UniProtKB/TrEMBL annotation, chain A:
<dbReference type="GO" id="GO:0009055">
    <property type="term" value="F:electron transfer activity"/>
</dbReference>
<dbReference type="InterPro" id="IPR017896">
    <property type="entry name" value="4Fe4S_Fe-S-bd"/>
</dbReference>
<dbReference type="GO" id="GO:0046872">
    <property type="term" value="F:metal ion binding"/>
</dbReference>
<feature type="transmembrane region" description="Helical">
    <location>
        <begin position="31"/>
        <end position="57"/>
    </location>
</feature>
<feature type="domain" description="4Fe-4S ferredoxin-type">
    <location>
        <begin position="298"/>
        <end position="327"/>
    </location>
</feature>
<feature type="transmembrane region" description="Helical">
    <location>
        <begin position="261"/>
        <end position="283"/>
    </location>
</feature>
<dbReference type="GO" id="GO:0022904">
    <property type="term" value="P:respiratory electron transport chain"/>
</dbReference>
<keyword id="KW-1133">Transmembrane helix</keyword>
<protein>
    <submittedName>
        <fullName>DUF4405 domain-containing protein</fullName>
    </submittedName>
</protein>
UniProtKB/TrEMBL annotation, chain B:
<dbReference type="GO" id="GO:0016491">
    <property type="term" value="F:oxidoreductase activity"/>
</dbReference>
<keyword id="KW-0560">Oxidoreductase</keyword>
<feature type="region of interest" description="Disordered">
    <location>
        <begin position="154"/>
        <end position="192"/>
    </location>
</feature>
<keyword id="KW-0411">Iron-sulfur</keyword>
<feature type="compositionally biased region" description="Pro residues">
    <location>
        <begin position="158"/>
        <end position="167"/>
    </location>
</feature>
<dbReference type="InterPro" id="IPR003813">
    <property type="entry name" value="MvhD/FlpD"/>
</dbReference>
<protein>
    <submittedName>
        <fullName>Hydrogenase iron-sulfur subunit</fullName>
    </submittedName>
</protein>
<dbReference type="GO" id="GO:0051536">
    <property type="term" value="F:iron-sulfur cluster binding"/>
</dbReference>
<dbReference type="Pfam" id="PF02662">
    <property type="entry name" value="FlpD"/>
</dbReference>
Length: 385, 192
């Protein structure tokens, strides 16, 4: 059932692509650039966030007023605040698209687990940063978030209360709360870049930016939204008028909405299960569908005798799986005798795609289950038939 | 451009009519059935239902498909190998550009085929005998239409000149004298 669901999700993903490709040339299909779009929104967030950071004071009494000050007094403050909020929403939307797309098209297969695992962490931290961001405003919504998070954490047996104190700096609303939240907003934002290094380290030429049209389009939408719907605070948080209703940003605060229907403990269990399952996805046994006959072609092997050290495969391997090492001995063929370098395949990075075979004009690489002579034999039978 | 032109757009939903008008052009073109070898990326168009047991296409028996793990896996020398061994045309089908499962494979094969076409030109083989097309898993109809178009175009090319002496497959190595060290099996004689 679940497999069938995934198969039909793949089908719909591809169908959507086909639809979009009808409208745009395929090189501009935004769904092919969800990673680049995430990076774009993250950059907008960092820049606008820096601006807000100059004005923000993380203290119980002043936080709300400084945010209001940014909105009302600082030139273009309202706009920048809007940009920060709406690009956060945009960020969440595109990383969810990126996540689902990579999931449904199985781009976690073979040794692609590293971008997947780092991606899951990016997703979790992005959500977390969003919530701490809403607390920083310190309006009634923020207060409600703190109360709800506190209750949810306290519901964890044994360590719950301790965790809550760790997060908020003590029971109840303390003076430490907002500095901590500020740290937990900015700190993980920096951490995202560490995770992104991990995300990219095995990708050659990651498409870090979308095509210029989509950069401009995204910027335009964010600007337009921040002009049309100013990002506003709710009334100030105060202990005397406890907040009632949660004004929801569906992208970040969905878990809090679900608290209406779930007990806090169940929510935490559910979240843990989802995250753990997400981390497990790339290790599920691959399933060979009927129409996808050729998988497992085997890790690429260098044929030492033929390698000339030309580096062509090193430049073309999309997963940085080929390194050039100083050659310990000359090769056998004429072209390989004067070589200085020898290609080496890092097995843990190889996704068995065979792109290096296509890159190599010296027949110095092969996929063990898909040899050149087999291909040539197939060509010959095809030509002779 | 090395491609076969853009995929058939608006009319693509309806199955292409068997009597394609392109077929009528050129005297005697329809009579000859070019032999075509196609390399098909395993993640691109699903071969299910369009291929017979022996690898030939159901609608186009003159076309044989060979499945490969990724379009980037193909060595251009294999395309040349096919041409020299009696195929009238060869093409590569990968996923839509930008959507390669292995990120860069189809972009790379596009560049490699483009280079190869220039090489073929120098060898006096019509570069139109090789092509690249890009279709996703479920775009079978469009794929078949594009292959038919390719086949028709190859059919209209004038008969190839006698096969040139074999060379090393890739242009990277300095061109060896023709009678130096021919690589691979000697080319079979062209069919009439
Ligand atoms: C801050 C958020 C993220 C950014 C900026 C980001 C960016 C990118 C970029 C630029 C690429 C390279 C795409 C290409 O060149 O084809 C990529 C690949 C990838 N991302 Fe992300 N990503 C983010 C979050 C995630 C998440 C949440 C997941 C899923 C759990 C994920 C999973 C992957 C995977 C599996 C790949 C490899 C795709 C392939 O090998 O074809 N990423 N990411
Ligand atoms: S098959 Fe070759 S190109 Fe593909 S990941 Fe492995 S080493 Fe890199």
């Amino acid at each position: 059932m679940y497999r069938r669901l995934l198969a039909s999700l793949l089908r719909w993903t591809l169908r959507l692509d086909v639809g979009i490709n009808r409208v745009y040339p395929a090189d501009f299909n935004p769904l092919y650039y969800t990673g680049g779009l995430s990076n774009l929104f993250l950059t907008i967030l960092i820049l606008s966030g820096l601006f807000l950071f100059f004005y923000y004071v993380p203290s119980y009494n002043e936080a709300y007023t400084t945010v209001q000050y940014i909105s009302e007094r600082v030139p273009y403050g309202q706009i920048i605040r809007g940009i920060h909020r709406y690009s956060a929403d945009g960020f969440m939307i595109v990383i969810l698209l990126h996540f689902f797309r990579n999931w449904f098209t199985e781009r976690f297969r073979f040794s692609r687990d590293e971008p997947w695992i780092s991606g899951m962490m990016l997703l979790v931290f992005a959500g977390f940063i969003g919530v701490t961001g809403y607390v920083l405003v310190w309006d009634q919504r923020a207060e409600l978030l703190v109360v709800m998070t506190g209750n949810a954490l306290a519901a964890i047996p044994a360590v719950g209360g301790w965790l809550r104190n760790l997060l908020f700096g003590g029971p109840g609303l303390t003076n430490l709360l907002l500095p901590r939240m500020l740290f937990l907003h900015v700190g993980p934002a920096v951490l995202l870049y560490v995770l992104l290094w991990w995300h990219y380290v095995r990708l050659r030429h990651p498409k870090v930016w979308p095509p210029a049209v989509w950069t401009l389009f995204s910027l335009g939408v964010v600007l337009l939204l921040s002009g049309l719907i100013p990002a506003a605070s709710q009334p100030q948080a105060s202990p005397t008028t406890p907040p009632r209703q949660l004004a929801v940003d569906w992208l970040f605060l969905l878990p809090y909405v679900s608290l209406k229907y779930l007990t806090p403990l169940w929510l935490i269990v559910l979240a843990t299960v989802i995250i753990v399952y997400g981390l497990y996805i790339p290790y599920q046994l691959p399933e060979t569908r009927a129409e996808m006959g050729l998988r497992e072609s085997g890790i690429a092997q260098v044929i030492d005798a033929n390698c000339t050290g030309c580096e062509l495969s090193y430049y073309d391997c999309p997963y940085n799986a080929i390194v050039m090492a100083p050659s310990p001995h000359p090769g056998v063929t004429k072209a390989a005798q004067a070589r200085k370098l020898l290609a080496i395949v890092l097995e843990s990075r190889c996704v068995e795609c065979g792109i290096c075979i296509g890159a190599c004009p010296f027949e110095a690489l092969e996929l063990p289950h898909f040899l050149e002579q087999d291909v040539q034999a197939k060509v010959l039978t095809a030509c002779r038939s | 451009m090395p491609e076969l032109g853009p995929p058939p757009k608006s009319q693509s939903q309806s199955a292409p009519a068997p009597g394609n008008p392109a077929r009528a052009a050129g005297p005697g073109a329809a009579a000859r059935r070019p032999k075509i070898v196609g390399f098909l990326c395993d993640w691109a168009v699903s071969a299910e239902g369009i291929v017979r047991e022996d690898g030939t296409m159901r609608d186009l028996p003159n076309v044989t498909l060979i499945k490969v793990p990724c379009s980037g896996f193909i060595r251009p020398s294999w395309l040349e190998f096919a041409l020299k061994n009696g195929a009238d045309g060869t093409f590569v089908c990968g996923c839509p550009l930008g959507d390669c499962f292995n990120r860069l494979g189809n972009n790379l094969i596009q560049d490699r085929v483009a280079q190869m076409r220039r090489r073929l030109e120098r060898q006096k083989i019509q570069p139109d005998r090789v092509g690249t097309i890009y279709y996703g898993l479920r775009e079978q109809e469009q794929f078949v239409a594009a292959v038919r178009e390719f086949s028709d175009r190859v059919a209209q090319l004038p008969a190839p000149p006698p096969p040139p002496p074999a060379r090393r497959p890739a242009g990277v190595s300095p061109a060896t004298p023709a009678d130096g060290s021919p690589s691979g099996p000697t080319p079979a004689p062209e069919e009439p």
